[in-house]
Amino acid sequence: MIKWGLRLFLFFVLVLLIVFVRHFYLPACHEPQYPTYNDWDSGKLNHILPSANHSEFLIKTSFAKTLEEAPLLIVSDSMVIRGESSESSRRYWSFHATDLQPNTEYKLILVDDDHNPLADGWPLSTYPHPDSTAEKLTILAYTCAGGVEDEVLGREIFIKTAYRQQLLSRGLSFDPDIVIANGDHIYWDRKSLDNTFIKRLFKLRLDNIYGHLDLDQPMTSQANLETLSNIADAQIAELYGCLLRSKPVYFLTDDHDLFENDEAREDIVTFPPQPYMMDGAVSTQSMYYPEFLTDRNRPQRLTGQEGSFNRNYGTIRYGNLLEGLLYDAKRYSTLTDDTSAVMVARDAEAWIADRTVADDTKHLLHIPSSPIAWTAGKWSEWYPDVLQADGSIATSPMQKHLWQSGWWSQHQRLLNYLKQSSRTPIILQGDLHNLSYALIRQSGDISFEDDPIHVVGTGPLGSGAFGFPSSFRGTGAVVPEDMQIKKLLDQTEKNGFSIIEVTVDQITISMYAWRPDDGVEVIADMEPLFRYTIRN
Known about the structure:
Elements: H1 2-25, E1 45-52, E2 57-63, E3 72-75, E4 79-82, E5 92-97, E6 105-111, E7 122-125, E8 136-143, E9 151-152, E10 155-156, H2 161-172, E11 178-182, H3 197-210, H4 225-240, E12 249-252, H5 275-288, E13 305-306, E14 309-310, E15 313-318, E16 322-327, H6 346-357, E17 363-368, E18 386-387, E19 393-394, H7 405-420, E20 426-429, E21 435-443, E22 446-447, E23 453-458, H8 469-472, E24 483-492, E25 495-503, E26 506-514, E27 530-535
Parallel strand pairs: 8-11, 11-12, 16-17, 20-23
Antiparallel strand pairs: 1-2, 2-5, 3-4, 3-6, 6-7, 8-25, 9-10, 13-14, 15-16, 18-19, 21-22, 21-23, 21-24, 25-26, 26-27
Helix pairs in contact: 2-4, 6-7
């Protein structure tokens, strides 16, 4: 009897070992799944992501195979721009067109040296001149679009790429003028995944599918380039393909785009970022999505400036109708003497302050990567609230390791700038995996009762069942202890996006929400979960 019991036990151990080896250790492959297009031939292209202002285009592309000669971008038969590549595979090419006319549609086409088309042509328009009148603007906004398809204990961390593409197509059906993708385009955390056995297994499995990154080598080195391409192709190029070829897009970066989660433990502190993190973020952006174009009101020597572009602090300027200020609140965070620490670089804060109190557009948007008025108890937030042993989020008895009070001080200064603005204060934010709408009434000792700040959680495009905070961390987002808000839409953990319709007299925000259990067939016709109009 004992022998049979031992044999049965050994049999189950063998089965578990086989499952472990097949699932986590044996190399697997990823099958690319790029979007398809109606009546448009993508030819040799894998993806196109453009940006624009009133006089420039910056376009990032990738091709299925190496191009020995640099491709050419022809702009309305009058301008020829030779592509530039930042890596050795010669699959990723960028094009910068300047001296364009404001508020003009251009016909673009990519060709080889013999002027043979590499794909069908497409239109792209410049914005109205900053001093001109603009009557309306439509924005598609969302967050957390990244992540590869995989499961942990049978639950998806990120929804299928095909689902994300259908949500994106639904957003594009409203014909937005621009797209804002706010943070977490890449999920490929390295050292911060080493704190639990399950996370290490998940990391091992993904490395066996997509390849291993040598963190001591540059990301675009021969040792790492193929792996980096596999990772970012799956999360960026495959998701977008050429769907946004005619829609200027703003990619704002957050913690995961630097190849780590924001964490501070005794064994690891991920921010300020280490060299491999900065290199990962810069390399990914150089290859896949546009940096921020110039703006006459943004200093040319601002932190994050790279030549004529800025990687981290950007401007949406659409005539005299709207100015949007995009700012990364992770990359230049500091750990100093606690009180003087910042999350946004000090010179960038000065730029934000100056533009917030200006009054040369009808509307103003703050677009930070780190959320305001909500906390998930994570480390690198404006707030000291932390996940407690009982599952609550609070400031005591457990205190947040290495949290800096200077972060809260900067938060208060940013909100105070909005209080001083003559325009309705509005924040469009990312990072948190939810849709939400709130009015800030009080923040610390600052009252906003007379003119509350509108805070919009735009919605996560890619989060799966296990990727939402209430599942992954055991609790959803809550209001920080030192803030008072009015919830117009409580945090809602669904996939989705927001459509922001801007006119001279008002801004209407419509939020669309979906989960896989709702059925794919409802995406094409889904109605808003929530709609709110802000009138001047």
